[in-house]
């Protein structure tokens, strides 16, 4: 394998010294880019982009080609490939979110769910990872990812996106054994899926617990964090002679950072509701931090974006252990020029915080 030409993202996740703060954006390949919209039109729909390794590679590279400041690539795929491989029948209605042909409602439904084999049932994702690694040729590291068991369970039980997770939470309180069985099957699947991505060439992995923050403090521990801890303990942590850092991102998990920092990962993703400087004090030297600019700041003028980047860098302060990112995904309405201004500001303004 080619040596990495830019490894500051991996170094920052391990709190090793860097020249400037590394940066990438959640959902960096997506609808705000006209080149992405063109590829999606060519592929026909979103799932065809994900399932064809050449298309997945093409759209992964688009933000990197447009923005030389990006310090990491992220596999183009979706967290919902796992429920699809479990037989739920994922589809996207145009202009709407994800939907499933089958929903999971009863213990019997959960008992009948197969545990997918990553090579056989999700081979298209493994192929996308190795294709992207080849195309990157050492430019920047490649991030693999999966959804957390809790977040995946919400889609499987609701049958799609949800505002209040009514069915999943009813199951949590009425039938906790059933939900635990589902979460356990998902944790096993996510572990082997992420290990498959690592073996195929992913150099860091992120677990997206997008909806963990909707739980009570007690339910979060039992139904989300416990399963992420289990996954982390089963992951391959070194490959190709390098550490493979693990990032846990619970959106709206700011109240629980101390316990998330104890789950065994290398880094925590932060949304914009927490102050990154206070978060750093709370987690101490245990983990690195990734985040945390409000993605809506990208609607504002470049000067305002730059000021907000400066404020977050100053709040984190001197030294390594910070990967700059948005607090959640970039939205389709953002002007690509503003994303560029954001990325340039991170590198320009952060040099002063590193020796
Ligand atoms: O083209 C389109 O209209 C599809 C939009 C889209 C895109 C670009 C979807 C459907 N997924 C993706 C790609 C995607 N999804 C990536 C690609 C890599 C990158 O970051 O560039 C990643 C990491 C995801 C992960 C994902 N999918 C999450 C976790 C991250 C997060 O944003 O919280 C979640 C919750 C999903 C489900 C999903 N898939 C797609 C949509 C629109 C959604 C969210 C629906 C909802 O809000 O419930």
Number of domains: 1
Roughly what fraction of the amino acids lie in strands?
Answer: 5-15%
> What's the CATH architecture?
Alpha-Beta Barrel
How large is the radius of gyration?
19 Å
Main sheet specs: 7 strands, parallel
Broad CATH class: Alpha Beta
Spatial ordering of strands, largest sheet: 1-4-5-8-9-10-11
Q: Which parts are unreliable, with pLDDT below 50 for 5 consecutive residues or more?
A: none
N-to-C span: 30 Å
Topology record:
Layout: H1 8-13, H2 34-43, H3 46-51, H4 53-66, E1 73-74, H5 81-88, E2 90-92, E3 98-100, H6 107-111, H7 118-121, H8 123-136, E4 142-147, H9 149-158, H10 166-174, H11 176-200, E5 204-209, H12 217-233, E6 238-239, E7 242-243, E8 246-250, H13 257-261, E9 267-269, H14 276-283, E10 288-293, H15 302-316, E11 322-326, H16 336-350
Parallel strand pairs: 1-4, 4-5, 5-8, 8-9, 9-10, 10-11
Antiparallel strand pairs: 2-3, 6-7
This protein binds coproporphyrinogen I.
Question: How does this structure look, described?
Answer:
The chain is of the alpha/beta class and 355 residues long. It has one domain: TIM Barrel (Alpha-Beta Barrel), CATH 3.20.20.210. Helix content is 48%, strand content 12%. The chain is built from 16 helices and 11 strands. It has a 7-stranded parallel beta sheet with strand order 1-4-5-8-9-10-11. Strand 8, helix 13 and strand 9 form a beta-alpha-beta unit. Helix 11 runs parallel beside helix 12. The longest helix has 25 residues. The mean pLDDT is 97. Bound molecules: coproporphyrinogen I (1CP). The site of coproporphyrinogen I has 21 residues, from loops.
């Amino acid at each position: 394998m080619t040596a990495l030409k830019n490894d500051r993202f991996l170094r920052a996740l391990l709190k090793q010294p860097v020249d400037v703060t590394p940066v990438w954006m959640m959902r960096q390949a997506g609808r705000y880019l006209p080149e992405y919209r063109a590829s999606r039109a060519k592929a026909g729909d979103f799932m065809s982009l994900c399932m064809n390794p050449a298309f997945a590679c093409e759209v992964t590279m688009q933000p990197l080609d447009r923005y030389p400041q990006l310090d990491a690539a992220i596999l183009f795929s979706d967290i919902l490939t796992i429920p699809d491989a479990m037989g739920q029948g994922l589809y996207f209605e145009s202009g709407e979110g994800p939907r499933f042909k089958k929903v999971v409602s009863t213990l019997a439904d959960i008992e009948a769910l197969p545990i997918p084999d990553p090579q056989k049932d999700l081979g298209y994702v493994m192929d996308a990872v190795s294709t992207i690694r080849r195309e990157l040729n050492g430019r920047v590291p490649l991030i693999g990812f999966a959804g957390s068991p809790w977040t995946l369970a919400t889609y499987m039980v609701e049958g799609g996106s949800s505002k209040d997770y009514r069915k999943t939470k009813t199951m949590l309180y009425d039938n906790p054994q059933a939900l635990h069985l589902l979460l356990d099957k998902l944790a096993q699947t996510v572990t082997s899926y992420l290990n498959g991505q690592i073996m195929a060439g992913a150099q860091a992995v992120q677990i997206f617990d997008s909806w963990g923050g909707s739980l009570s403090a007690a339910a979060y521990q039992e139904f989300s964090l416990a399963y992420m801890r289990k996954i982390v303990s089963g992951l391959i942590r070194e490959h190709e002679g390098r550490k493979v850092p693990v990032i846990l991102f619970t959106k709206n998990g700011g109240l629980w950072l101390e316990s998330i920092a104890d789950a065994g990962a290398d880094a925590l993703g932060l949304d914009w509701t927490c102050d990154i400087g206070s978060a750093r004090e709370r987690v101490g030297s245990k983990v690195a931090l990734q985040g945390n600019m409000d993605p809506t700041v990208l609607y504002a003028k470049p000067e305002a974006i730059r000021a907000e980047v400066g404020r977050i860098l100053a709040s984190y302060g001197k030294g390594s252990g910070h990967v700059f990112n948005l607090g959640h995904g970039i939205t389709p309405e953002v002007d690509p020029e503003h994303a560029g201004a954001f990325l340039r500001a991170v590198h320009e303004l952060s040099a002063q915080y590193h020796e």
